[in-house]
Amino acid sequence: MKVVTAEEMYDMDHRTIQEIGIDGKLLMENAGRAMAEQIASVSDKMACIRVFAGGGNNGGDGFVIARVLLELGVRVSVVQVVPDEKIKGDALFHKNLLIRCGGDVEVLMESAPIQAIARKTDIIVDAMLGIGVSGVLREPLAQIVKAVNETDAYVIAVDIPSGLPANEESDDFQAVQADETIIAGYPKVSAFLEKTAPYYGNWNTVSFGLPRTITAEHSHRQVWTPEMFQKTMPERKPNAHKGNHGRGLVIGGNSEMPGSMAMTVSAALRTGAGLVTAATVKEVIPTIAAHCAEATYLALNDTDGYADGSSAIPFENFDAAVLGMGLGRRPEAAKIVQQAIKTRLPLIIDADGLFHLKGMLQHVKQREEPVVLTPHPGEMAMLLDIGVPELLKSPFSYSKRFAEEYHVYVVLKGRFTIVTTPEGNQTVSDAGNSGLAKGGTGDVLSGVTLAMIMQKQPIPEALNNACFVHGKSAELLTKETHSVYDLMATDVIKGIKKVYRTFQA
């Protein structure tokens, strides 16, 4: 499923009409009918539904929705919140069609009567403004949106909640707070941004006839789905042995943070790595062994319980490495990161490894082997020398720019994890929940990622599958045995088997 900007969506619509020859009225009919059928399927026929319609295509969709609901025997009427001269083109065609079919359209542009109507309404269908909005709303729409948000009615937004920006970089807006949004075609970027996503409520998409020849060109941004995981996750051959599934190296740990290494190692083995070696200070080895008897160990030289760079690590004996968890920020640890960058195997760099990496990014550009960075927003902002709020306004853009400049894969962790390739292709993982907002879950993801990139699959698929397994483990556990409050990182490791049994059976 693609993720698009407003401009990309407009381009697909325009080219479908101009190049393919599908009339805009038909596209509007398709979208509105599909939405109306969804609304009818979840609403009581006795419920009072009012469509709040504006100008443009969003209002036109609203007129179609009202007509189709009328055909289905639903109690529905339209409140038009713009003057008649604002209803033009395809939207005017469908408004007139609604009226000729017996539909009721009342023009109201004052917040007081709209508030009174809203109080007597069970379901409000928000079709006032579409994806072209930017900036603060003008009156009277600002007051109308405020009135909708103050009602007790169930609010269903058409394509996007009115007033909400579709793209990044907008943080000054006033929008309808929808309970549910029915998106036409593809979800917009703002459905995956920390500040704007909550306004959508629960959302789903409907198809309205965009041909594949047009939509295929917009494929550099997509959502990773369970179907994609099932399609791309490699199957284990009956005669496979441990060497077929990777010899992984995990580097990090210190005497004050032994658990981070233990979780990464355990997660890698649970995910399917053939062999995992923990390279850490001697004091940490018993802690890891107590949690994971299957691992092997490499003792690193240390200073005051922290690994330093005086150990010669035999990278050539491994298929991939992950480093940074509990490594510490002492200057001596930077030498370990320097060693790793000079190797000829795939690297995953997390946590303290990212701190040391910041001064070595120019060297990373020269590597031929893949480098995967797995920052949370604070770490990503540090690498970019910007503030976290600025990053969160435009996480897609910043991740893309960074990945392309330094020729790395970026896994920007968050409620919506964004995976970006060195070519700038991006995938969003929406798997997971707030139970993952705990210390240690990033260490678990590092282990899952290590195991995945050692399986026989392309790196982008491996990273997306790692995020899927990690997030789905949390979802399945909180659905069956845990809550988002008590879920711990070690529980997520145990839940990996549930993901495989559910999606790979």
Salient structural properties:
alpha/beta; Rossmann fold; 505 residues; 16% strand; ten-stranded mixed sheet; UDP-N-acetylmuramoyl-L-alanine:D-glutamate ligase
Descriptive notes:
The chain has 2 domains: about 5-220, YjeF N-terminal domain (Rossmann fold); about 245-505, UDP-N-acetylmuramoyl-L-alanine:D-glutamate ligase (3-Layer(aba) Sandwich), CATH 3.40.1190. The strands form 3 sheets. Strands 8-19-18-17-16-15-14-9-10-11 form a 10-stranded mixed β-sheet, with helices on both faces. Strands 3-2-1-4-5-6-7 form a 7-stranded parallel β-sheet, with helices on one face. It has a two-stranded antiparallel sheet with strand order 12-13. It contains 19 helices and 19 strands. Helix 9 links the parallel strand 9 (about 245-250) and strand 10. Helix 2 (about 25-40) packs across helix 3, helix 2 (about 25-40) crosses helix 4 and helix 5 runs parallel beside helix 6. The chain has helices at about 5-20, 25-40, 55-70, 90-100, 110-120, 140-150, 210-215, 225-230, 260-270, 285-290, 330-340, 350-355, 360-365, 375-385, 390-395, 395-405, 440-455, 460-480, 490-505; strands at about 50-55, 75-80, 105, 125, 155-160, 180-185, 200-205, 220-225, 245-250, 275-280, 295-300, 300-305, 305, 320-325, 345-350, 370-375, 410, 415-420, 425-430. With about 500 residues, the protein is an alpha/beta fold.
